[in-house]
Amino acid sequence: MKNSAFSRSVIAAAIALAFPAGSAMADEAQDQANPNRSQATLQIQNLNQVNPLYRMYSGMDRSGTVGSVDVDLVRRSEDGAWAKLQARDLGLRNQELGASYEKQGDWKIGLDYNQLTKYAPYTINTKVGGVGTDKLNLNTDWRSSAGLGGESSLKLERTGTTLSGNKTFSEAFKFNFSFKTEDKKGAIMSSSIGSTWNGANTATPTKNYGTMFFTPQPENFRHNQFEASLDYFTRNLQLSGGYSGSFFTNNNNPGLNITPGNNAIPTLPCSAVTCGGTAIAAGASGIPWISLPPDNKNQQWYLSGAYNFTDSTRLSFKLSRDHLTQDDSFIPAYGAITPLVGTPISATYTQMNPPGVPYAAGITNTSLGGVVDTTAYFGMLTSKLTKELDFLASWRYENRDDKTPQRNYLDAQASAEYPAGAMNSRESHKLNRGKFELSYRLPAGYRLTGGFDYEQKKTPATMRDQVTEKTYRAELRKSLSETVTGKVMLAHSDRDGGRWNLLDGTPAAGATTFSTSTGVAAPLQFSDRKRDKVKLMVDWNPVDPLNLQFFVEHAKDTYPFNPPSGNARMGMTDGSSDLYGMDAAYRITDVWRANGYYTYNKNKTHQNELYTPRINAADQACTGVTVTTACSPWQADLSMEGSVFGAGLQGRIASWDVGAQYLYSKDKTRYNINFDPNFPTAAGSSVPAGAGVLPDTVYSLNRLKLYGTYAYSKATQFRLDYIYDVRKMDDYTWTNWTFSDGTRVNVNPTQTTHLLGLSVMQSF
């Protein structure tokens, strides 16, 4: 946002400095009398090379010279009709186009189009076929580097079109509508677990083992959204009633069909060379389908509005009702296959992916039949009770009623993992969220604000039926002088809830903590938490050309948990966040200006082991045994640090309006996994076996931008831009990562980009 604001100020300064003051005043008077304008900008950019990190959102997908066009056209007729056309980056993969026609005070119609392409920041070498579709063919030559294919990259392309308009019937009634359709196509990183072998694929395999394959998930989605509303407004009462419909369609099949080729090795009723005549059991394939997002739709009816009781008291509200359905077809069930007598084993292997998943016996429905109804009410009252006292109160109630039929989709026949069956869960909840605030103007320029926030969420049939959070906050603001303004805010939050629905509410005999199945620390939204937060901000103008802003924020979280019995030292125990920053703006002369900013943030959490299974149930503390993969009480001090520094300078040299912008940012994630000092360690081992040591991940950006604008005439301007961009990524996750099928994913750790641009802006 700072860069955008800085760019806008540069343009404004360039226009102001390009023309003398008297001429500018005359042009302003002429513009008020005749607002018509026609302006076109031709941009020619030269990119030295396409770096994955730079091109993610830039719209630049190839090196060399690339051209684009911006257009700004405004016309107003004598009868008050406005015609507007705006276009940005036409010719690039992030282009935007908008057109509208308006009869002022009567009606308006508009059409907008936008396109955005996001590239994955990785380079990929693969021979997997069908990437981007719902049918993948795995690489059959996975055992050597000969299995690597050409270099490519995954991407997602979004294109959206919006038709909107409104009609004013009278001073009190207005109708609005919009229809938007957005398409998203491409593929995202994904993998599947299957089985393969290390012997020749023309005879009985010598070994069958689990592994991981590169199976990018396709996205071929369409999202349609329609909104319509009728507005009624008077001096005291404003109402808007309407409908909003959201319709999501996945144009792929319900599942990603993976053809394993020679990679999946089930147990075949075959001889050493041929198969046939005997059915191969359903589900024999090592690589099943992967489910893709199902079609769904949501429809909302709402009424919102506000009423002014007096000039100082106002009530606003919104009532809504949502109806969400999901009835897309299931992936088909597994089916058995029967190879013909004499079928070669190599040919039979290619048939080992019968579509579908295992369902419980007796399942006859072909879709989930999901239905969720949500009713919500919101109201807010603001009032100036006295000259010194302001009051605010708001409340939101939400009832999410999941009416999806519950069925036992898995049983012992379908999966040995669920001998008692597995039923789909419902996700109903009731939410109450309130906010109350009083603000009082004290003598000597002080202003004191006190507030209370309340949130209660009830989620039946979950790990914890009810969680309540209360927040108390106070803020003091003061104009310390004509040049200094400051404020400080303190807040304390306390979250707790009702009883835990633990799978194992009592520790095993002799154990010192709960077993893994309790899961009391995850997910965190159910855990008790205490949070304290402080904010400080100062705005200082020490001298007329200089403005400084400073801000500090600190928050501390603790997660106390008192189990019914035992001592649960597991999961998240505490956390903290810090944010520091400053902004500076300095007017050097009437022509030259400078600005700068710096922010630093750090989030830390401490996590104890979610206790892994012990060698015996009575040895939860790992005493008297060697630390092994079955007994690894580790702890992690996770931290995420980020810093951003930016500076800008703008001015005028001869006939050129010039400027420079510099941006530096760095994000670092540290895992800091260590052995828990409260427990014994294995001889010569500082980190428990199985816990592993994860290296830091670092991402940094250095960006320098130089630019200059020259006004050749009142109607013609030239602009030169140069960008030097260096991005570094140190991420162990994708450093020469190789899948079992031979696919290789990599990130160039240092990526340098040079971009030179020439723009010609012509007004007509």
Features:
764 residues, mainly beta, 26-stranded antiparallel β-barrel, 4-stranded antiparallel β-sheet, 5% helix, globular, disordered N terminus
Compile the SSE list and pairings:
Elements: H1 2-18, H2 21-33, E1 37-47, H3 52-55, E2 64-76, E3 81-90, E4 96-103, E5 107-119, E6 123-125, E7 135-137, E8 151-152, E9 155-168, E10 173-188, E11 191-196, E12 209-214, E13 217-233, E14 237-250, E15 255-259, E16 274-275, E17 290-291, E18 296-308, E19 313-326, E20 343-344, H4 345-349, E21 370-384, E22 389-402, E23 408-410, E24 422-423, E25 429-441, E26 446-458, E27 466-479, E28 484-497, E29 529-543, E30 546-558, E31 571-587, E32 593-608, E33 634-653, E34 656-670, E35 673-675, E36 697-711, E37 716-730, E38 737-738, E39 744-746, E40 750-763
Parallel strand pairs: 7-15
Antiparallel strand pairs: 1-2, 1-40, 2-3, 3-4, 4-5, 5-9, 6-8, 6-39, 9-10, 10-13, 11-12, 13-14, 14-18, 15-17, 16-20, 18-19, 19-21, 21-22, 22-25, 23-24, 25-26, 26-27, 27-28, 28-29, 29-30, 30-31, 31-32, 32-33, 33-34, 33-35, 34-36, 36-37, 37-40, 38-39
